[in-house]
Write a structure and sequence with these properties.
The chain has two domains: 23-54 and 292-390, Alpha-Beta Complex (Aspartate Aminotransferase, domain 1), CATH 3.90.1150; 56-290, Type I PLP-dependent aspartate aminotransferase-like (Major domain) (Aspartate Aminotransferase, domain 2, 3-Layer(aba) Sandwich). The chain is globular and about 55 Å long. Helix 12 (276-290) packs across helix 13 (292-311). A hairpin with a 6-residue loop joins strand 10 (318-319) and strand 11 (326-332). 43% of the residues lie in helices and 18% in strands. A seven-stranded mixed sheet has the order 3-9-8-7-6-4-5, sandwiched between helices. Strands 10-11-14-13 form a four-stranded antiparallel sheet, with helices on one face. A three-stranded mixed sheet has the order 1-2-12. It contains 15 helices and 14 strands. The chain has 398 residues and is of the alpha/beta class. It has helices spanning 2-16, 56-69, 77-81, 84-97, 112-123, 138-146, 159-168, 191-201, 223-227, 255-264, 266-269, 276-290, 292-311, 334-346, 376-390; strands at residues 33-36, 39-43, 104-109, 128-133, 150-154, 173-179, 203-208, 234-239, 249-254, 318-319, 326-332, 349-350, 353-354, 364-369.
């Protein structure tokens, strides 16, 4: 049992440092009001930004897709798993991104994590140099490591540092990779300046729009629309389990890039294709996102964001400079953030504590996320609870 004992000791160390994770069991659909470990809670922690995850039209579309295509795809896309439903969805994504990427194509992946691994390992290699934003998501960090490229990390938002690194690079292939909306801070990358640098230095710009797709831009078409960008150097990753309310991800880029990924992206080639029923449901999701209902939901979400920022303006704890649905409350210590989350739960509100290594040391936070499914009254309930807890001394000196 020596190996088991070693792991248990390390788990005990995580517990002592207030860093041990545990799963909560949800017994209801993704919605503001949820059953969590048997307790009714008002949740402010999902990435279901438009409130579509339990939308009746999507539920019916998924059931219809299962009736048409069955449950599983049976094999990888390059064997017999590439369904008509996948083709139609990829064509839709290519059309969506056509104002921003010349001659676009699109490729669907089972998850956003796999999409990021697939893009960076497919484009990178020993001949490449990859420039990664300091606060990039773990999937981009892992993709960079697995790509076998030379990796340079530049400080968050420091375009001057990125420019210096690109100017020094002698690599045959240069790849700049960034989140669009940073998942733990909620701010948006300065993509216009980044794209200008990439075009000047002949570098790809890979943008992971996990938290922008469906929310930002004209008719929810994402961060490229938000900034009105267009370039053949853009490689766009969109996640479909957040604002789109279903599951999976896609990559949109020039059709030559897509063809290359079909031939060289190992996470695409060597995995079973996602169920076609999901692609069928996602077509309905895109209808909702770009339609009038989607516009109404985005307008309501913007109103909730403004409301929460206004009602928490005098809070002792720090709010981040975010105009997105991600509204982190920076508390600092692991112990205090744990106690704050527990105090919220006692009031029937679920906001998980986020601790290192997900965020930097001494910046533990409550990651509040808002959804168009929340009401203004529910948002006020959250802010009232936060202000009440903010006034308490959760970690008194011994």
């Amino acid at each position: 049992m020596e190996l088991i004992d070693q792991l248990q000791q390390q788990l005990d160390q995580l517990s002592h440092a207030q860093l041990r994770r545990r799963r909560r069991v949800v017994g209801s659909p993704c919605a503001p009001a949820m059953q969590v470990d048997g307790q009714p809670l008002l949740a402010f922690c999902s990435n279901d930004y438009l409130g579509l995850a339990n939308h009746p039209a999507l539920v019916e579309a998924l059931a219809e897709g299962a009736r048409i295509y069955g449950v599983g795809s049976g094999a990888s896309h390059l064997i017999n798993g590439h369904s008509h439903a996948h083709v139609v969805l990829e064509e839709r994504f290519a059309d969506w991104l056509s104002p921003h990427i010349p001659s676009p194509g699109a490729l669907t992946f089972s998850t956003g994590y796999m999409a990021n691994l697939g893009v960076l390992t497919g484009l990178g290699g020993p001949h490449a140099e990859l420039f990664s934003e300091e606060l990039n998501h773990a999937s981009l960090i892992d993709g960079a490591r697995l790509s076998r490229s030379q990796v340079r990390v530049y400080p968050h938002g420091r375009i001057d540092m990125l420019a210096e690194l690109l100017g020094q690079s002698q690599a045959q292939v240069k790849i700049v990779v960034t989140d669009s909306v940073f998942s733990m801070d909620g701010d948006i990358a300065p993509l216009p300046a980044m794209l200008a640098l990439c075009e000047r230095h002949g570098a790809w710009l890979v943008v992971d729009d996990a938290h922008g797709f469906g929310v930002l831009g004209q008719r929810g078409r994402g961060v490229l629309s938000h900034f009105d960008l267009r370039s053949p150097y853009l490689v766009y990753v969109g996640t479909l389990g957040k604002a789109a309310g279903v599951a999976g991800a896609f990559v949109a880029a020039h059709e030559t890039v897509i063809d290359w990924l079909v031939n060289r992206s190992r996470p695409y080639i060597y995995t079973t294709a996602s169920p076609p029923a999901l692609s069928h449901a996602l077509m309905k999701s895109l209808d909702l996102i770009e339609g009038d209902e989607g516009e109404q939901r985005r307008a309501h979400l913007r109103a909730l964001i403004a409301q929460v920022k206004h009602e928490l303006r005098d809070m002792r704890w720090q709010l981040m400079a975010s105009e997105t649905a991600i509204q982190p409350v920076i508390i600092g210590s692991n112990s205090e953030v744990q106690k704050a989350a527990a105090a919220l739960q006692e009031q029937g509100i679920w906001v998980p504590p986020i601790r290192p290594p997900t965020v930097p040391a001494d910046s533990a936070r409550l990651r509040v996320t808002l959804s168009a499914a929340h009401t203004r009254e529910q948002a006020s309930r959250l802010t009232s609870a936060l202000l009440a807890i903010d006034s308490l001394d959760l970690c008194p000196a011994p």
